[in-house]
């Protein structure tokens, strides 16, 4: 109780201080169409804050930004996005402060980096609804507990560290779309595969370990486990650079890797640069990355349903259904045997389907996964045991 009283006092002082400064918004991109609408719609003012990237990253930030903007324009609601001045918890918190001072009462936060913001800001702004994408109990506990956290959220009551009344969090079952991508790649004829992760955070690891399981399952079905090899590494960062590109050059040109699942923000640029030199292929992540990677070299993309989540949450907030979501930390995955209705999937339009793996084969795989016939482990305590050869190189940096 003492913490909440202090937080409320701080909130009042902070909002007054920021309002007095007359800030106009971090990036000033507004989707306000000014048509008024019903009272609930008119009362909504939506903000989105970018994490360490920007709205052109072809990943979390861009998908969230474009979805918020499109929804706001369609519903006649004001929208602004804010880009923090630096890659730090303090800068992200400051952007939320600015958004609230500018009148935002719905704030969308894409990515696990916003766990610290939820812990610090949800108590400060009890009248603001926070929608935190890909923020889980472990992320919140790490920031809430601080020093001494044992990285097992089951040992803690996560609700002690943030205001559950004004926060909705969700994570995605990355292992499922990772599995789909690995399974598809082997069925499409690739025998020497790679995984390039960003930082080895849980979401990236789930993608990678699901990918390995999918590769192994497809190889077993085709009875070619002795012919399949996988190279596995993380870059240690969420962006590509000359060192990581050189590493990928070696994979494609010297080791004979045919396709790399590039998983982690902008790190895909290094895989793409190397692939273009050698005729290699790339698997995208989070959203359909074929437009930015190049349709000719993108085998598929292991997607998360960010757009579906944002659209659902904004619509339900508008319709007065916030109580159905507040305090939840959903783990979103398969909700249907219809691939397009799920929160994890491959793109139907741009995947390079072939006789070895067609759209019908993909739909059959999803049906089997949804029914439980095909099971995928989400355990990330150790790399999954596989019959195919998997070489783990740790981290480049």
Please explain how this structure is put together.
Helices cover 40% and strands 17% of the residues. The protein has 13 helices and 13 strands. The chain has helices at residues 2-21, 39-43, 60-75, 89-101, 115-121, 137-145, 174-187, 202-222, 242-255, 268-278, 290-293, 306-318, 359-371, and strands at 45-49, 78-82, 106-110, 129-133, 167-172, 192-197, 229-234, 259-263, 281-286, 298-304, 329-332, 344-345, 389-395. The protein has a 7-stranded mixed β-sheet, with helices on both faces. Strands 2-1-3-4-5-11 form a 6-stranded parallel β-sheet, sandwiched between helices.
Please write out the topology.
Layout: H1 2-21, H2 39-43, E1 45-49, H3 60-75, E2 78-82, H4 89-101, E3 106-110, H5 115-121, E4 129-133, H6 137-145, E5 167-172, H7 174-187, E6 192-197, H8 202-222, E7 229-234, H9 242-255, E8 259-263, H10 268-278, E9 281-286, H11 290-293, E10 298-304, H12 306-318, E11 329-332, E12 344-345, H13 359-371, E13 389-395
Parallel strand pairs: 1-2, 1-3, 3-4, 4-5, 5-11, 6-7, 6-8, 7-13, 8-9, 9-10
Antiparallel strand pairs: 10-12
Helix pairs in contact: 1-4, 3-12, 4-5, 5-6, 7-8, 9-10
């Amino acid at each position: 109780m003492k913490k909440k009283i202090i937080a409320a006092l701080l909130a009042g002082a902070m909002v007054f201080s920021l309002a007095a400064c007359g800030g106009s918004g971090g990036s000033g991109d507004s989707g306000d169409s000014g048509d008024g609408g019903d009272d609930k719609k008119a009362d909504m003012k939506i903000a989105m804050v970018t994490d360490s990237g920007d709205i052109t990253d072809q990943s979390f930030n861009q998908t969230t930004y474009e979805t918020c903007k499109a929804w706001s324009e369609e519903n006649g609601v004001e929208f602004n996005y804010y880009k923090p001045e630096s890659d730090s918890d303090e800068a992200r918190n400051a952007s939320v402060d600015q958004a609230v001072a500018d009148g935002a009462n719905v704030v969308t936060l894409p990515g696990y980096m916003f766990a610290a913001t939820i812990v610090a800001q949800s108590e400060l702004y009890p009248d603001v609804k926070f929608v935190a994408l890909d923020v889980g109990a472990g992320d919140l506990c790490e920031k809430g507990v601080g020093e001494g956290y044992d990285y097992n959220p089951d040992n803690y009551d996560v609700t002690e560290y943030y205001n559950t009344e004004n926060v909705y969090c969700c994570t995605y079952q990355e292992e499922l779309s990772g599995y789909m991508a690995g399974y598809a790649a082997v069925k499409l004829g690739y025998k020497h595969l790679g995984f390039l992760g960003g930082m080895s955070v849980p979401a990236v690891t789930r993608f990678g370990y699901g990918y390995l399981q999918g590769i192994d399952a497809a190889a077993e079905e085709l009875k070619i486990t002795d012919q399949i090899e996988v190279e596995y590494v993380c870059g240690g960062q969420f962006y590509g650079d000359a060192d990581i590109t050189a590493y990928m050059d070696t994979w494609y040109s010297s080791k004979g890797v045919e396709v790399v699942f590039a998983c982690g923000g902008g790190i895909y640029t290094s895989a793409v640069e190397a692939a273009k030199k050698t005729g290699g292929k790339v698997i995208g992540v989070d959203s359909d990355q074929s437009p930015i990677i190049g349709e000719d070299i993108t085998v598929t993309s292991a997607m998360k349903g960010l757009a579906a989540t944002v659209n659902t949450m904004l619509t339900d907030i508008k319709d007065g259904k916030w109580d159905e979501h507040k305090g939840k930390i959903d783990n979103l995955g398969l909700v249907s045997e219809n691939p397009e209705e799920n929160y994890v999937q491959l793109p139907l339009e741009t995947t390079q389907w072939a006789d070895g793996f067609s759209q019908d084969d993909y739909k059959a795989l999803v049906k089997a996964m949804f029914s439980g016939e095909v099971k995928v482990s989400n355990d990330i305590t150790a790399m999954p045991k596989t019959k195919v050869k998997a070489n783990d190189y740790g981290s480049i940096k």
